[in-house]
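Weekly sync, protein design subgroup
Attendees: M.S., D.O., the rotation student, P.L. (late)

Item 1: inverse folding check
M.S. brought a backbone from last month's batch and wanted to see whether the design step gives back something sensible before we order anything. D.O. pointed out we never logged the input encoding, so this time it goes straight into the notes. Structure tokens as presented (390 positions):
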């Protein structure tokens, strides 16, 4: 069998993941750390056993799509509208403040003005994957803490779409196109109307007629998720927005809980690939150059983000305990940070060392933030039985 085959790559990833997971569980570490370290070991800068990292990364991105689809399945539309109205100001203010702070840190490290603003854009958001992966199902779906986290992350996703448009347009002589922004403002309501219409006149009748055939329900739900994700991407939004909306419109259906349970193993399969790709894509050739700046920037993010979220949430009327927990759970950089670095590098707005600074900072915050959350709050991958909940 040729070493470059998909089967060989998947074999290496999951055999390695099983081995690394065994070690980290014996040493009471986080499973997410095992996946990232495995990627570094297998990737181009490690043993070079996995060379087609782009494919692994693309497959891993599907895990984010399914994660958001499952999230939407447990969130009633009326609850979503209520919470988004409450946290919009929090998401906007926090994103702007994080961007400004990171910008000045970038200038202090000697980055150019453009690179510093891109660094600021990359540090604006918190990780949807880390936040939701470490949130027990009971808290995510049935408690106010989960509603607050979901709402903040969703508003950040909307802001992220706008930031991507800005970065993509910045390479053009004409700069940011008003038509691009207008497209987003029109596309989101249009996609929402389309989704609820399809749910009422197509999905629900089909599910009502064939709901006893479990395989059909499984296939239809996957097709629905990926179809709306595809349409969303074509409308200038993102696959993530479409996947989440696909889940929300089905949340009122009695079969939504069954769909969510049946798709969990599929989601976990793709998320393992995602975290492995994070470790595999980091360029260790720049480690000596970016290590100290990344440690400083990551430390500041890990301290400032939880504190700022706590202050903003308390001022909005949230209880101290809720504000503190949400702040800590959202106290890291985002997978969007990696996307910003990749796009900005391709458009020549970001030098390779600056891009690796963003990647190193993001990985460090992923690892440390995961430990902090696992040690202090209930999670599905807690180190002790008393804290392990799902």
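Designed sequence read out in the meeting:
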């Amino acid at each position: 069998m040729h070493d470059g085959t998909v089967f060989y790559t998947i074999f290496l990833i999951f055999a390695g993941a099983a081995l690394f997971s065994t070690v980290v569980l014996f040493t009471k570490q986080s499973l997410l750390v095992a996946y990232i370290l495995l990627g570094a070991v297998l990737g181009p800068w490690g043993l070079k056993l996995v060379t087609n990292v782009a494919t692994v990364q693309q497959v891993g991105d599907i895990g984010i799509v399914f994660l958001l689809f499952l999230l939407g399945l447990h969130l009633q539309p009326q609850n979503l509208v209520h919470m988004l109205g409450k946290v919009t100001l929090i998401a906007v203010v926090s994103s702007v403040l994080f961007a400004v702070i990171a910008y000045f840190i970038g200038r202090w490290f000697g980055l150019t003005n453009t690179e510093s603003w891109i660094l600021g854009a990359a540090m604006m958001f918190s990780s949807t994957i880390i936040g939701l992966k470490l949130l027990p199902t009971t808290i995510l779906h049935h408690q106010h803490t989960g509603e607050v986290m979901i709402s903040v992350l969703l508003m950040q996703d909307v802001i992220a779409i706008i930031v991507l448009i800005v970065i993509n347009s910045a390479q053009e002589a004409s700069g940011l196109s008003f038509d691009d922004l207008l497209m987003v403002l029109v596309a989101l309501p249009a996609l929402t109307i389309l989704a609820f219409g399809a749910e009422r006149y197509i999905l629900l009748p089909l599910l009502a007629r064939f709901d006893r055939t479990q395989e059909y329900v499984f296939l239809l739900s996957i097709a629905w998720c990926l179809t709306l994700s595809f349409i969303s991407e074509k409308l200038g939004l993102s696959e993530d927005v479409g996947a989440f909306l696909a889940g929300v419109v089905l949340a009122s259906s009695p079969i939504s809980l069954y769909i969510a349970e049946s798709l969990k193993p599929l989601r976990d399969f793709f998320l393992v690939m995602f975290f492995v790709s994070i470790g595999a894509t980091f360029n260790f050739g720049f480690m000596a150059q970016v290590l100290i700046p990344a440690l400083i920037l990551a430390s500041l993010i890990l301290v400032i983000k939880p504190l700022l979220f706590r202050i903003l949430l308390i001022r909005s009327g949230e209880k101290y305990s809720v504000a503190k927990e949400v702040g800590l759970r959202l106290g890291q950089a985002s997978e969007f940070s990696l996307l910003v670095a990749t796009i900005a590098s391709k458009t020549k707005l970001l030098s390779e060392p600056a891009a690796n600074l963003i990647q190193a900072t993001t990985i460090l915050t992923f690892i440390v933030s995961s430990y902090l959350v696992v040690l202090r709050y209930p999670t599905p991958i807690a180190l002790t039985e008393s804290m392990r909940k799902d």
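Discussion: The mean pLDDT is 82. The first helix runs from residue 6 to 26.
Action: P.L. to compare against the previous round before Friday.
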